[in-house]
Amino acid sequence: MRIGQSIDIHPLKENRDLILGGVKIEHPLGLYGHSDADVLVHAIAESILGALALGDLGKHFPDTDPKYKGISSIVLLEHVYALMKEKGYHIGNVDATILAEKPKMAGYILKMRENIAHSLHCDIDRISIKATRGEKLGFVGREEGIASMCVCLLEEEK
Predict the structure, then answer these.
(1) Residue 113 maps to which CATH number?
(2) pLDDT value at position 70?
(3) How many domains does the chain contain in total?
(4) SUPFAM superfamilies given for it (predicted)?
(5) Residues near 50 by Cβ (< 8 Å), separated by ≥ 6?
């Protein structure tokens, strides 16, 4: 078994889509970044890379490379899945939390779990996604950005 953890943070900006877990969420602000800035998928992918001791997302998908400009983070997660399989592992479980003051996430979480499970070729019951608010504290509470944290367990293929 291997365990990985990660945190990802992106600022909220106008004229950007809000994409979390591969789901477009109606909101006046979106996350800013080189890719679609999906903090949830970034935290999940980077926790897997960490468990495999393969570095971070920037090492594999540098923001200086124009081919990643605006790319779906789900596509990046599928590349990370291929690296995981190449190393002989599969998902034991993923436990992720989104930190966002607004919008409320409850209505989107099932679709996020479905998207992540599909990309990682595992059952949805291995993917946990939760959300919490900043309670008006810090950059999350002031609605300046959204963060996500993730822990994953990888199991060696038999």
Answers:
(1) 3.30.1330.50
(2) 86
(3) 1
(4) IpsF-like
(5) 4, 5, 6, 56
Which amino acid would we find at residue 28?
Answer: P
Instruction: Measure the CA–CA gap between 42 and 30, rounded to whole angstroms.
Output: 15
Q: What integer is the mean pLDDT of 23-27?
A: 96
d(CA 120, CA 109): 16
First to last CA, the chain: 12
Residues at the annotated binding site for a divalent metal cation? Answer: 8, 10, 42
* 3-class DSSP assignment, residue 128: strand
Structural domain span for residue 55: 2-156
pLDDT digit string, tens, across residues 26-39: 999 999 999 999 99
- The DSSP call for residue 144 is S
Q: Are 40 and 96 a contacting pair, CB within 8 Å?
A: yes
* 16-30, 59-73, 133-147: least confident range: 59-73
> Residues annotated in the binding site, as ranges?
8-10, 34-35, 42, 56-58, 61-65, 100-106, 139, 142
